[in-house]
């Protein structure tokens, strides 16, 4: 039996998850039972959350795999037997008979759960009739027994089809649907308390907000770069093949999308550029790009102030910081990394790290803008050969915020700030609606001792300020 206690030793595992636990706990207070759905990309902590819930309330946790339907039912029955003794002594010929007896025994013994079925897509792949069986069971027998059941899965496409589509068997049955997101940046201070200043920015550049990556990184001492070499660049590292695993574990497999990720990760941003790199017509990529966006792996971006329907100016980028690093550093250099020493791997990383860090810092700045004042969500602005703005937002009263992001490794000196501020003051403003006033902002990781946070009317915002306010 899995030793649950060892799963909860690291504080970062449940940073930002208390609200989800409250939703799950509230389901247990429903006298007629409840169905809860938990989804989200892999490695964001769904299993840890559900294990914590089960442990707190004396429930049952079952995780499916790729076994045959008969074996899957046997394993599920063994899991149930820990709360309903003797349940595993019967060979269940189908899911309907198993679930029917589960409701009967649970009602007799006044066991209400929670019962967690994790990685539901594996069960459905082997037994396509299961969603309809679950629907009838949830509507009648499970409800009568007051059972609280949670269905979870990492295959976001399949979970959508099983639960959220209007014609799905389980549509409308869930009392709550929790979509777990990566941890927000402001949790870095608690997840990595020893990291300060620029090291904290490097930490986000490497691992993003994925709890599993944080856990691995926190177990290593030394600089962030050394952890990246050990965990990612070394062919023996646990994350060296991570993107391939993520794609293969999707249901259905998303391995066929790998060429697009290679192209985007290598710098192709426009549909025409992506198509050219993979040797396919641009007109054939729309569905694949939509699926990558649905999986949370790729984001589509248009200039600030431009309609999202304007496909001609759309750019695509890998949305997760870790995957961005992997496709920039590991994917094109797999052979070289296999033969390299750790020192050589470190040098290769340092070639690409400044660009990756700048991109990550820009995203952090845009993400935090609504927390800096009455600003709408920020975007980036570009047009032809005009100077680009890293951060642009407009308030409801017409005020315009424009910002530049500088991922300087060392704290900003007065001279460096003065030079950058002067450039900001003369740079042409982006196109926007009626503007009542303009606020210019310079984002830097840190400033030196005694350096003020206002220069010639330009506001200076540091990384600590970005991470102090909860991000949206």
Which structural traits does this protein have?
single chain, 472 residues, alpha/beta, Rossmann fold, Arc Repressor Mutant, subunit A, Trna Endonuclease, Chain: A, domain 1, six-stranded mixed beta sheet, five-stranded parallel beta sheet, 21 helices, 44% helix, 13% strand, disordered N terminus
Can you walk through the features of this model?
The chain has helices spanning 18-27, 46-57, 69-80, 95-109, 120-126, 130-139, 141-145, 156-164, 188-191, 198-207, 211-218, 224-233, 242-248, 258-265, 271-278, 286-294, 321-330, 334-339, 342-368, 414-426, 463-468; strands at 34-39, 60-63, 115-118, 148-153, 176-179, 298-301, 315-318, 379-381, 389-394, 400-405, 438-444, 454-455, 458-462. Helix 10 packs across helix 19 (342-368), helix 14 packs across helix 15 (271-278) and helix 17 packs antiparallel against helix 19. The strands form three sheets. It has a six-stranded mixed beta sheet with strand order 8-9-10-11-13-12. Helix content is 44%, strand content 13%. A hairpin with a 2-residue loop joins strand 12 (454-455) and strand 13. With 472 residues, the chain is an alpha/beta fold. It folds into three domains: 4-179, 3-Layer(aba) Sandwich (Rossmann fold); 186-357, Winged helix-like DNA-binding domain superfamily/Winged helix DNA-binding domain (Arc Repressor Mutant, subunit A, Orthogonal Bundle); 364-468, Trna Endonuclease, Chain: A, domain 1 (3-Layer(aba) Sandwich), CATH 3.40.1350. The chain starts with 17 loop residues before the first helix and ends with a helix.
């Amino acid at each position: 039996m899995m030793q649950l206690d060892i799963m909860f030793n690291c504080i970062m595992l449940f940073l930002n998850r208390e609200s989800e636990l409250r939703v799950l706990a509230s389901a247990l207070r429903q006298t007629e039972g409840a169905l809860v759905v938990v989804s989200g990309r892999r490695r964001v902590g769904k299993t840890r959350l559900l294990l914590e819930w089960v442990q707190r309330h004396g429930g049952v946790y079952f995780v499916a795999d790729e076994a045959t339907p008969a074996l899957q039912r046997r394993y599920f029955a063994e899991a149930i037997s820990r709360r309903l003794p003797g349940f595993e002594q019967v060979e269940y010929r189908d899911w309907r008979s198993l679930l029917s007896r589960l409701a009967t025994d649970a009602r007799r013994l006044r066991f209400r759960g929670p019962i967690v079925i994790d990685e539901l897509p594996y069960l459905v792949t082997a037994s396509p009739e299961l969603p309809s069986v679950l629907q009838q069971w949830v509507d009648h027998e499970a409800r009568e027994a007051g059972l609280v059941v949670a269905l979870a899965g990492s295959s976001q496409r399949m979970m959508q089809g099983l639960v959220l589509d209007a014609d799905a068997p389980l549509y409308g049955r869930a009392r709550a649907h929790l979509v777990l997101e990566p941890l927000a940046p402001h949790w870095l201070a608690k997840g990595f308390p020893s990291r300060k200043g620029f090291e904290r920015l490097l930490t986000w550049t490497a691992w993003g907000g994925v709890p599993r990556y944080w856990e691995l990184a926190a177990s290593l001492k030394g600089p962030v770069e050394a952890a990246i070499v050990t965990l990612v660049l070394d062919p023996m590292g646990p994350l060296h093949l991570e993107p391939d695993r993520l794609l293969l574990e999707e249901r259905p497999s998303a391995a066929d999308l790998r060429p697009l990720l290679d192209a985007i990760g290598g710098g192709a941003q426009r549909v025409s550029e992506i198509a050219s790199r993979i040797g396919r017509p641009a007109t054939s990529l729309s569905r694949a790009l939509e699926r990558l966006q649905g999986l949370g792996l790729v984001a589509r971006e248009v200039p600030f102030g431009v309609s999202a329907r304007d496909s001609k100016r759309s750019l695509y980028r890998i949305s997760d910081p870790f995957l961005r690093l992997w496709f920039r550093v590991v994917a094109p250099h797999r052979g070289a990394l296999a033969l390299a020493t750790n020192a050589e791997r470190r040098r290769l990383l340092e070639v690409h790290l400044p660009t990756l860090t700048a991109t990550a810092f820009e995203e952090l700045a845009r993400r935090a803008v609504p927390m800096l004042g009455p600003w709408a969500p920020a975007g980036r602005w570009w047009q032809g050969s005009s100077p680009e703005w890293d951060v642009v937002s407009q308030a409801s009263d017409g005020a315009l915020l424009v910002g530049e992001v500088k991922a300087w490794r060392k704290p900003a000196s007065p001279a460096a700030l003065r030079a950058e501020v002067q450039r900001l003051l003369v740079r042409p403003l982006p196109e926007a609606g009626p503007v009542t006033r303009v606020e210019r902002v310079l984002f830097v990781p840190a400033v030196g001792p005694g350096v003020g946070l206002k220069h010639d009317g330009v506001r200076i915002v540091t990384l600590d300020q970005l991470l102090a306010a909860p991000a949206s």
